[in-house]
Structure formats: C-alpha cells, structure tokens
C-alpha cells in the first residue's frame, strides 16, 4: 500500500515510509482542472493514479487527504510511496485549484449573464468579426444567417436542459449516467468568467503564477545543493488549458524579477492539454492574448534541441529556456469542447514564438470514447493516453532507441467512431419509435381493433416510425442549414423519399386503411386515390409538413411548433371523425388523449434530439463553425464544406 509521506514545512514530501531514505525530487507534475464544481485535490489525485497505473503492479488510488492542502493559496508537492527503483521515485505531484472562484461568483448570483443572453453576445461577436475582416462586397453570410444562428444557439441551451431529463431516465434504468446539462452550463459559466471578466481572470491566472513560483522556491530551499531546478510538467484539462497557456504567455512576455516572480517558466519542460478550447478563445477573444514580446531569437533557425532565448529591447537575454517546452494536445472527436489547436499554432507562428515544440504531429485526435459530450471527461480514465505523454515527454526511456516522435500515440478504439456518431441518432429514432407505438396502441384500443397479429403490429410501428423520422429530418434541415445550398434540399428529398418508400412497402394495407379511415369518408379522397386511398392519404399528410417547413421563415422554433402543431391537428381531427361513428356506447376518451399528449411530447423530444445531433456533428465534430471563424480571421469568406474530410492545417 502506498501511504502519505511526512509533510515538511516547506510544502514538499521527501521521505519514504519504507525507510529514512532522502528522496531527491527531480520532476514535478502540476495539474490544473477544467470547468465545473471540482473538488480540491481531486484532479492531482487522478493524475497521480494514472501515472501509478503505468507500471505493474499498479499503485492504488490514494485518498484526497494524501494530496490535500488547507487553502487555495498553499502549495504541497506530494510524492507517492514507492520503492527506490520505481520510475516515480523522483516525481512529485501538485495542483492548481481555481474552482472556488467561479463557485463564489455563482453563489452570489449577481455577476454572470444568463446563458442564452450571453450566447447572443457570442453570435454578435462572430458577426462583428465577419464584418470587420471580410470584404462585404460579395459576402456569402447575411444578417438572416446570423439571426438564425442566434436562434439556434438559444434553442441549444433549452434543448440541453430538456435532454438532461432523458439522461436522468437512462440513469434510473441503469443504461448510463451522465450529467450533460451541468457539464455544458458549467463550461458556459466558467468560460464567461475567464473570457469576459478581467478581474476574475487575473485572479485565476495569478493563482497559477503563485503556485508554480512557490513550487520552485520550495524546491530550491529543500535541495540547496542540487545543481538544477525541478523539471515541471503541466497537465491541463478544458478551461484549465486556457488559464495555463495564458500564464505561460504572461511569463514569456514579461521580465522575470522580484515583482512578478515569473521565473518558473524556465523550469517548464512539458505541457499536456486534454479537451482544450484554446482555439475558440483565440478566435472569439483575440484581445486576451499578448501581441508582443513573444518573439524568440533565431526563430527561423528553431530546433527542438536548441535553447530558446527571449531578449529585451537592448538585445539582452531576459528569459532562457534550455529547450522548447514539449506540448502535446489530445482530443476525442466526441468532445464538444476540446479540439485540434490549428489556430494556436498559427498564433505562435505569427508572434514568432519558438518557446513550444508544438507542431502538427504533436496534435493527437482520436475516437476512443462512446458517448458524445461525456468524452470531455473520459480522458481522466484513459491510462494509455497518459502513457503516451509520460513515455514521450516526462519519463522517456534513456536506453530506448525509439525517438520521442515515434512513440505510438493513442489509437482509435475499434468501432468507437461509428458508435459515437450513431448514438445520438439512435436515441432520436428510439424516441420516434416510442411515440408511434404509444399512439398506435391507444388508437387500436380506442377503436376496438384487436384482430391484428404481432407481426402486423411490428410492421406497422416500424414503417410509421420510419415515415415519421423522415418527416422530422426533411422538416428540420432547412432550420439548421443555409437553404441556398441545393445539396441540403436534395438530401432532405432523398431521405423523405426513402422513408415514404419503406412505409409503402412495409405498412399493411388494412392498417393504412384503418388509420386513414376517418378521412376516407371524404369523397375527394377516394375519388382521387382509389384503392390506394389509405396509404396515399398518409403520405400526403407526411408531405405537407416538410414542404410547409421549407417555406416558413428560418426560425427553428417556428418550424418545430408547426410540426408539432400539425401533428396535433391531424390527431384531433381524426379523433373527432372517428369518435361518434364506431360505438353506440362511447368509449372513454381520456386514454387516447393521454396517449396523444405522450406522442406529441416524445416526438418533440425526438426533434430536439435530431437538432442537437445534427448541430453537434455538422458544426462541432466536423469543425465547420471553427473553420469558418478561422477563415474570417484570415480575411477569407466562408466556403461551403464538401463531402471530403477536414484537412488539419500545419502552421
């Protein structure tokens, strides 16, 4: 069992419980957490556990008290209790904790802007970027497009809250448990605090400076005869990557002295970012980032094994890094927050900053986690992810002939990409299927229709569910894309046509006649469609909804209301036509009304699920939104994305 080493007055543990052997600390892992209401010391405990799991036998999970400090301002470097020949013998662990800052702000409730209102400002900022950077003589994006984006943004916030109810139901059913809404609302709140409020941002970044400065100071006091400073490796997650990168740029662009204590930057050797949104911050908040004093000497002659020098106005060296900081970025394609850092590399290139070894090959994307959204937190349970950073940066094998760049990165897990892509749409189909089943069973019970076999019921539910899904897709696409693009019209038409064909081929004729029975009494229906009146009338109703949605103004909420309203009108009309004609003693109406309400509610959830899934895959997972902002930053107008895969850029 590993146990806590004795804590010294200088905030470092350095003595093994297995004997009075002085442990020379050489490397210090500093972890900084991301968004959300994090527990103190939980992040560094997770990191230490991942490091301890890399060797056999793996070390046990330590209690939080092993790493705990009394307050946010104190620093304690923990060392795991291992044998002297263990790779972690000379490695310490510390944490930068900042979750108390946004928690206090949220508790007061008088600072942060409401999520939907703040989302509108993000769209406005993007619109200002477009107008300021792109020539308006032949612009492709109109004000109507931005208005639609604002509406979609507002609805995403609402839809996430609704989908959280489904996550709760799934958790109770034992399928999976994940708090989707808290993750994204915490992200929105923390990003707003860091990006928009200078005083709070400074408080958090200064805390990072203070922790690393104290680590270096304590190290020098404890090991006065050691010829080197500690090697510091920063592991950052989510919004913590933004904070740590801002702090590093502050340190690189400033003069280390007794006033600011930025000299710790010269001890940093590695930087691991997981689920990082740095690119989004550079594109949307460019004024956050330094635009001078980052140029390194001999930038064009940069080499990974060459010292990095930053000089002042007198050409005197103010900062000297023994080598560029080895930066490795990791992101899962199912992560809605983290992604590839193309723009970050471009920013460093523009500033002629060679302080980081961070090229195209140091940016690792993969599909390893099944659930979209939850992937943002699944990094912490991925031992192989940490193995790559440890083997290539922190503890490379000195006897190995394998180059650091040749260490195998985390691979895609089999079928995980397809699973991650399909889960949201499977949920959407399931909601449509449940809606149709509930409504169909209630209708047959209401009209005393019980002579159909199980096969007939199965074929009916599946065929009508396919038709309803095709109606949803064909109706929602115009609310989520630019209708000027012919390919989306063709895609909607093809999907709807396939749904209609499947329904016509699989739906039993007696069932279609039964369902359309209340309308078949109308003379114009039978005279128009003849023997195929039942199926034809169902298809006609299905056609009207997407066509209407294509013609309506491009406001997502309007389209959804029209869809659900149309369904309500059809159900109400059918009920009124059928109710007095099929029974002398009128059957109870309330079960049918209740089933109709459940049908409409589940269909509405299915529409929301499709909207979120499409927006997620189209604009976030495939990086359409980020690439658009990148184009505007480079003063280029938006170009439609083809069917080819996105090609990352190496600056």
Automatic annotation (TrEMBL):
The chain crosses the membrane at residues 418-440, 460-477, 489-509, 529-552, 564-582, 588-610. InterPro entries: AB_hydrolase_fold (IPR029058). SUPFAM superfamilies: alpha/beta-Hydrolases. Keywords: Membrane, Transmembrane, Transmembrane helix. The keyword Ribonucleoprotein does not apply. This is Uncharacterized protein. The lineage of its organism: Bacteria, Pseudomonadati, Pseudomonadota, Betaproteobacteria, Burkholderiales.
């Amino acid at each position: 069992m590993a146990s806590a080493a004795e804590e010294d007055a200088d905030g470092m543990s350095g003595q093994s419980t297995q004997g009075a052997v002085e442990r020379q600390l050489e490397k210090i892992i500093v972890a900084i957490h991301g968004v959300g209401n994090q527990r103190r010391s939980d992040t560094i405990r997770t990191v230490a556990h991942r490091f301890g799991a890399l060797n056999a036998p793996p070390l046990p999970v330590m209690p939080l008290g092993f790493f705990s400090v009394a307050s946010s301002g104190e620093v304690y470097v923990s060392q795991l209790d291992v044998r002297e020949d263990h790779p972690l013998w000379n490695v310490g662990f510390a944490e930068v904790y900042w979750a108390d800052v946004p928690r206090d702000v949220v508790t007061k409730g008088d600072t942060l802007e409401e999520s939907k209102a703040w989302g509108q400002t993000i769209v406005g900022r993007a619109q200002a970027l477009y107008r300021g950077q792109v020539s308006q003589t032949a612009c492709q994006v109109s004000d109507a497009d931005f208005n639609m984006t604002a509406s979609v943004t507002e609805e995403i916030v609402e839809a996430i809250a609704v989908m959280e109810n489904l996550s709760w139901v799934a958790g109770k059913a034992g399928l999976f448990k994940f708090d989707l809404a808290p993750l994204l609302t915490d992200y929105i709140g923390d990003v707003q605090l860091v990006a928009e409020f200078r005083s709070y941002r400074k408080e958090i970044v200064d805390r990072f400076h203070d922790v690393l400065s104290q680590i270096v100071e304590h190290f020098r006091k404890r090991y006065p005869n050691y010829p080197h400073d500690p090697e510091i490796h920063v592991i950052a997650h989510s919004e913590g990557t933004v904070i740590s990168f801002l702090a590093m740029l502050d340190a690189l662009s400033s003069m280390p002295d007794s006033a600011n204590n930025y000299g710790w930057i010269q001890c940093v050797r590695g930087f691991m970012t997981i689920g990082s949104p740095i690119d989004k911050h550079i594109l949307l908040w460019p004024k956050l980032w330094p635009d001078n004093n980052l140029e390194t000497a001999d930038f064009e002659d940069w080499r990974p094994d060459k010292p990095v020098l930053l000089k002042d106005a007198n050409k005197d060296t103010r900062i000297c890094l023994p080598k560029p900081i080895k930066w490795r970025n990791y992101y899962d394609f199912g992560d809605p927050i983290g992604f590839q850092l193309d723009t970050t590399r471009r920013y460093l290139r523009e500033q002629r900053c060679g302080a980081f070894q961070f090229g195209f090959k140091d940016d690792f994307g993969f599909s390893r986690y099944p659930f979209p959204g939850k992937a943002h937190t699944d990094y912490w349970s991925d031992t192989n992810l940490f193995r790559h950073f440890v083997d290539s940066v922190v503890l490379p094998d000195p006897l190995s002939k394998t180059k650091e760049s040749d260490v195998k990165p985390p691979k895609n897990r089999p079928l995980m990409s397809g699973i991650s892509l399909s889960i949201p749409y499977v949920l959407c189909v399931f909601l449509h299927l449940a809606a149709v089943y509930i409504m169909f069973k209630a209708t047959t019970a209401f009209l005393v229709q019980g002579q159909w076999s199980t096969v007939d019921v199965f074929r009916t539910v599946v065929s009508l569910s396919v038709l309803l899904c095709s109606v949803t897709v064909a109706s929602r696409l115009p609310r989520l894309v630019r209708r000027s693009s012919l390919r989306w019209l063709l895609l909607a038409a093809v999907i709807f046509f396939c749904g209609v064909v499947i329904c016509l081929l699989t739906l039993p004729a007696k069932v279609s006649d039964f369902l359309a029975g209340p309308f078949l009494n109308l003379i114009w229906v039978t005279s128009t469609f003849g023997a195929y009146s039942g199926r034809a009338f169902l298809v006609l109703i299905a056609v009207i909804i997407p066509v209407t949605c294509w013609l309506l103004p491009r406001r997502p909420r309007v389209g959804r209301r029209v869809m659900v309203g149309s369904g309500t009108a059809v159900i109400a009309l059918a009920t009124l036509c059928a109710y007095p004609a099929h029974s002398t003693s009128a059957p109870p109406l309330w079960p049918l009304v209740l089933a109709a309400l459940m049908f409409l509610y589940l269909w509405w959830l299915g529409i929301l699920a499709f909207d979120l899934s499409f927006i997620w895959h189209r604009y976030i997972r495939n990086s359409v939104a980020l690439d658009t902002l990148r184009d505007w930053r480079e003063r280029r107008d938006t170009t439609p994305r083809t069917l080819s895969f996105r090609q990352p850029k190496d600056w």
